[in-house]
Amino acid sequence: MKAKDKKLHDLPKLAEIDRVIHEPARLMILGYLSAVDGGEFLFLMNQTKLTRGNLSSHLSKLEEAGYVTIQKEFVNKIPRTLIKLTERGRDALGSYLAQMNSVFKGLAP
Amino acid sequence: MNSKPTSIELETRRIFYNDGVIDLCVGVGLLLSSLALWLDLFLLKYLAGVSFIIIYFPLKKNVIYPRLGYFKFKKSYERRLKARFMIMVLVLSGLAMMVYLWDEGRIQVANSFLEEYYRIIFGICIGIAFALWGYLEGITRYHFYSGLVMMAYLHKYFFSTPLPIYLLILGLIITPIGVKLLKDFLLKYPPVMMEEV
Questions:
Q1: Which of its termini does chain A have fewer beta carbons within 10 Å around, N or C?
Q2: What is A16-99's CATH number?
Q3: Where are the domains of chain A?
Q4: Measured between beta carbons, which residues in chain A are less than 8 angstroms from residue B196?
């Protein structure tokens, strides 16, 4: 490619963005999970301020995409749902951030 | 992998430290130590020594996690935390042993200042431990505690006030801070009935 043909911005890359991650609530969930080695459902609910049903539905979508694992266990007869970010989820989040950074470089209000 | 913590990681650590449990444990430990020295009761000395274990784990397990939700720190950070804690315990136990041996007259040094004020080293080390922990975790109130501990030890030697009084004062300052932080935490995170999700 000649230098003059080279694009100075990456806006078309927005079309390739991962829409599973691009949703604000799911991005928030992945953000918190990337900061820990695993967190309970209640921990995510408190941090993201999402309702139980909302969080549950977003987690299902992330689990379907293979970005998180959801383990249900009982601790002292109380159910505990432990959510972890998978390697695939971590890589996807990394790629998403890299894509968004390159897109933002070309933008100005 | 990038070892610099992200702002969300730092926020998670702050949530962990700002529930006031550590402050409460330290404060109660100081109050019990003060009473133990004052009344010379073996049981209180023992209780002061294990107060951290008696208060910390049950509070975290039964009060903090059911409200906040359980979470695990990243393995690399958890390893660092354990290593730091072990080093601190070893250094402080070593110093406590040294002070004990000094008390018994089994250690003698040529320096007359150290001979008279050797316990200051212990106080300064506790102060440095607080300051270092506060610096590494970004918790400013630990710097305040560091200053308090150092002042207490220095003051004790240069103004000849009994140690139990200083421990009592420190306990009376740190315990209410812990109670206030815990109260704020309980108001911020009300109890949640978790059902199957």
A1: C
A2: 1.10.10.10
A3: 16-99
A4: 72, 79
